[in-house]
């Protein structure tokens, strides 16, 4: 009898657990909409969105570590305000242009989030959850540009371009790809944004840095070393963690097998990207350059982002290797082209964004990619999408920065650049205790971090 009661209790417990899971999985929209909302899917997408949002901290720490101490407050302020400005712009028109119904080129509804449905069409999550996830992507695209333009951009210009990027540049191309636009109709594939997020952000930054010109003390062929490698390391790890929301979250549902595969392909590409860039650095310089490994990992993450759901884990390892090569030699290419990119953002986000889109046409499974029986059809569509992205984002970014330059001003004054943007624009320093202290018998005016400039070490500057 006791054995029979234990059996009954066991089945009762199983029934309760199953019932709770079913209840958690499905609920109805509050406004009585007949579409069903999944609580599990909603929580998963929101957690992924939180990780993507936290990537702003990763960008901030990475860029702060790669700039000099006199500009750390400024670069952190830019990363913070990029987020806020793109939020406002995405609310006003960006979300509607990107995802609202309209035509093949832009949406024509949902401005200021007016009249959005309770449940996003075709999904099992509330539209507001979908909005927050997509806003975090928009903010990431805007922040990418700040790295290319670091140490010489007027703060007002940063606020202006962040707003316009989230209002027009990012959402229009996003509509073409993710909002049912003409590229989506052709079959263009970019699962999580190698082009939509990373290449668009890189093109905005490239236009900005070309119009700004190089930093006053930049000598091409020689690195101006970042002031704090541990900060850059922290930023890299935060970004790597954030990518586990960036890519798997783009499934927009808590589907166990797809998101598990996406997590693995994401991690594999980052791993081989870091290894490749590190070993290339040692091969060329006989130094294990950890900063190059940071960018190699990020390059691998960017490269896998478009194809992460479409390729095998084994292919993602190779994609990461190629991304590491692109990152390392891309930094050298920028030097040869005399384009001053303080943090190596364009090789990471731009060149690897291009490669990542093409990787879909090469390695995508199920008869899509070139190596899996798909021929050149998908590869051609991917190349067309890259051309469209270039012709849209780059010229418009140049126009935007031209208008900014003629109105609020684009570049800081020479004396501000020399002394640093922190005190002039923000009234505070990152390391105020270094000002006026005595170090090894030398009265220090400022502990500068240009060690390694032109291949030579420097000493603290004496007060005269």
Largest sheet: 3 strands, antiparallel
Q: What's the structural domain tally? A: 2
How many E strands?
Answer: 5
Helix content: 55-70%
Q: What would your notes on this structure say?
A:
- With 464 residues, the protein is mainly alpha-helical.
- It has helices at residues 2-25, 39-66, 72-99, 127-148, 155-178, 182-186, 194-212, 229-246, 256-285, 290-305, 313-336, 345-363, 377-407, 414-419, 421-426; strands at 27-28, 36-37, 438-439, 442-446, 461-462.
- A 3-stranded antiparallel β-sheet has the order 3-4-5, with no helix packed on it.
- Helix 5 packs antiparallel against helix 13 and helix 8 (229-246) packs parallel to helix 10 (290-305).
- Residues 14-32 and 436-464 have low confidence and may be disordered.
Question: Can you tag this structure with a few keywords?
Answer:
single chain, 464 residues, mainly alpha, Ammonium transporter fold, 2 domains, two-stranded antiparallel sheet, 5 strands
